[in-house]
Amino acid sequence: MNKTPAFIFAFALSSALAACSGASPKPEAPLEGARIGGAFELTNQDGKTVRDTDFAGKHRIIYFGYSYCPDVCPIDLQKVSQGFALFEKQQPERAKAIQPIFITIDPERDTPQVLKQYVSAFHPRLIGLTGTPEQIKTVADAYLVMYQAQKPEGEDAAGYLVDHSRQAYLMGPKGEPIALLPYDGTPEQIAAEIDKWTA
Q1: Where are the chain's structural domains?
Q2: Are strands 168-171 and 161-164 parallel, antiparallel or unpaired?
């Protein structure tokens, strides 16, 4: 009579238990271990000082742009905000632990007053952050965001554009990078990505 080796029986048993539990290992986050993010001290749309530590324990959705952006920024922000709003509807309790944040790369024009009006058009919980040019450069560098103001000479200089890279970051409760949200996707795709990495 053949005898099944003990290790085969143990493996079969463990596989059966895993199948019954339905548990599967959580996939590694796309940006896990990347050097993205860091400490910052900025000013919100109400003129109050805000530090990265104020969001400790919360996931963060962070997008860099500027309020005078003619098309790209408002479209991106609208889509990300719609995706977050959909996630709020699907998972209201989990959504409370996520903070959406807009950081300007045009601090010269994006004063707290300007940002207050701007962010209110996208989501009631969206925070707008500005600061000195030095503060903005520091936080943009930390998040690997490149930007360059295209200031023409003459009377129209005030209407300049700012070239900048586009990223919608999902950061973890400790400020760690997790994933890039598909800012050019549908609300459903964005909500699904938020759901995937904040569970």
Answers
A1: 31-153+165-198
A2: unpaired
Q: Extract long-range pairs of 72-79: CB within 8 Å, 24+ residues apart.
A: 72/166, 76/166, 76/168, 76/183, 76/184, 77/102, 77/122, 77/126, 78/122, 79/183, 79/184, 79/185, 79/186, 79/187, 79/190
The structure tokens 């590694």 sit at: 28
Q: Is the pLDDT of residue 157 over 80?
A: no
Q: What pTM was estimated for this model as a whole?
A: 0.85
Nearest 5°: the CA angle 174, 180, 183 is: 130
54-67 pLDDT, tens digit each: 999 999 999 999 99
Are the C-beta atoms of residues 111 and 87 closer than 8 Å to each other?
Answer: no
DSSP character at residue 55: G
Distance separating alpha carbons of residues 81 and 48, to the nearest angstrom: 23
Instruction: Give the closest residue to 106 by CA, choosing from 152, 49, 147.
Output: 147
pLDDT digits (tens, 9 = 90+) for 30-56: 999 999 999 999 999 999 999 999 999
Using one digit for the tens of pLDDT, what is the confidence trace for 1-20? Answer: 444 444 333 333 333 333 34
31-153+165-198 architecture in CATH? 3-Layer(aba) Sandwich (3.40)
β-strand 59-65 against 168-171: which pairing, if any? antiparallel
Q: Classify residue 149 by burial, with Cβ atoms within 10 Å: 0-12, 13-18, 19+.
A: middle
